[in-house]
Write a structure and sequence with these properties.
The protein has helices at 147-153, 160-163, 280-309, 322-339; strands spanning 7-12, 21-25, 28-34, 40-44, 58-60, 63-65, 72-73, 79-81, 100-103, 106-110, 134-135, 139-143, 179-183, 186-196, 212-221, 225-234, 249-261, 264-273. By secondary structure, the chain is of the alpha+beta class. The chain has 2 domains: 7-120, Rieske [2Fe-2S] iron-sulphur domain (Rieske Iron-sulfur Protein), CATH 2.102.10; 130-339, Naphthalene 1,2-dioxygenase Alpha Subunit, Chain A, domain 1 (Alpha-Beta Complex). Strands 11, 12, 13, 14, 15, 16, 17 and 18 form an 8-stranded antiparallel β-sheet that branches. Strands 5-6-7-8 form a 4-stranded antiparallel β-sheet, with no helix packed on it. Strand 3 and strand 4 (40-44) form a beta hairpin.
Length: 340
């Protein structure tokens, strides 16, 4: 069902502290916290004695003490104390620990074989530390739907014409032909739209006036990372061979889907733009606008989840679903190879 040997976003760094914090990821119940030196820890949220959630216990230094009989586990999952039988720690008293890496303000978790967890495989974000690029605070949203419905959505530039009329919609988003490209890490669906006004979300961000050429670049990377890149240039300067200049506006929306189980998802995101790197007001305005738009996606996708679960007649695919279907087939092959 899920690709386990992969990095997923477990939380924003700001969500993990010296308090016990819970999460369910790929069906695994996990408890997270920070050691005294600030490094994050993720453990199986179940004491091996009677499976009481460790999150119902307490932190004792850098260890977790079970709230039932005091079995205590360090950040690697090893039992270091058994108060009811001093000096006799049971040999099987251990909990699973999960590799964590903090990067890009996010905490990433490896859900598969720990020996395969290579931080170099965490998805790269270009220009992240550049002072010329503006960052939004981002957000996280619970979705009551399977994560692949959101993946489908993030490979579908056309939905903005109907779902996001007051934000991302604009001339050409309903009918300009799409290009689909398969690559080693996933699938990209894209198109250039020529000679149209910028969409409402971007109207005050583009630093030139008049009609625009617009790139919609919708990319999904295995297992569940979406990169939506929007580029605006003055009319006549866009197209596959375009070269950015001082008038080019680029905004990249990074989208991270973390499956909770087969019907729930935690959706993390932030925006990254090539202008106004230190302008907090613009970042706040963009973040607020993105939250409104993604709430529109949430409403649609949760209804899709319900509709697909309860359908009484067969569903169908449209031409615009080609990228999503290609991505699903590639992901299925990776999951099958991992299981084998």
């Amino acid at each position: 069902m899920f690709l386990r040997n992969a990095w997923y976003v477990a939380a924003w760094g700001r969500e993990i502290s010296r308090e016990l914090t819970t999460a369910t990821i790929l069906g695994d119940d996990i408890v997270m916290y920070r050691r005294g030196n600030g490094s994050p820890v993720a453990l199986e949220d179940a004491c091996p004695h009677r499976k009481l959630p460790l999150s119902m216990g307490r932190l004792s230094g850098d260890c977790v003490e079970c709230g039932y009989h005091g079995l205590t586990f360090d950040g690697t999952g090893i039992c270091v104390a058994s108060p009811t039988q001093p000096g006799q720690i049971p040999k099987r008293a251990a909990v699973r620990s999960y590799p964590l890496v903090e990067r890009y303000r996010l905490v990433w978790i490896w859900m598969g074989d720990p020996s395969l967890a290579d931080p170099a495989e965490i998805f790269p974000i270009e220009n992240f530390n550049s002072p010329d690029w503006g960052l939004t605070d981002g957000g996280v949203m619970p979705l009551d739907c399977h994560y692949l419905w959101m993946a489908d959505n993030l490979l579908d530039p056309s939905h903005v014409a109907w779902v996001h009329r007051t934000s991302f919609a604009g001339g050409g988003t309903d009918n300009v032909p799409l290009s689909v490209e398969k690559h080693d890490t996933g699938v990209t669906v894209s198109r250039w739209i020529s000679g149209e006004a910028p969409s409402p979300y971007y109207a005050d961000l583009v630093n030139f006036r008049g009609p625009c050429d617009r790139l919609q670049h919708y990319e999904m990377n295995f297992p569940a990372i979406g990169v939506n890149k929007t580029i605006f240039t003055p009319e006549g300067q866009g197209g596959p061979e375009f070269s950015p200049d001082e008038n080019t506006f680029i905004n990249i929306s990074y989208n991270f889907m973390t499956p909770v189980d087969d019907a729930r998802t935690r959706y993390f995101w932030f925006q990254h733009r090539n202008t106004d790197g230190q302008d907090a007001e613009i970042s706040t305005r963009m973040n607020d606008g993105a939250y409104v738009a993604f709430a529109e996606d949430k409403e649609i996708l949760e209804a899709v989840q319900k509709g697909m679960e309860e359908m009484r007649t067969p569903n169908l695919n449209l031409t615009l679903d080609a990228g999503a279907q290609l991505f699903r087939r590639g992901l299925d092959a990776l999951i099958e190879a991992e299981v084998d």
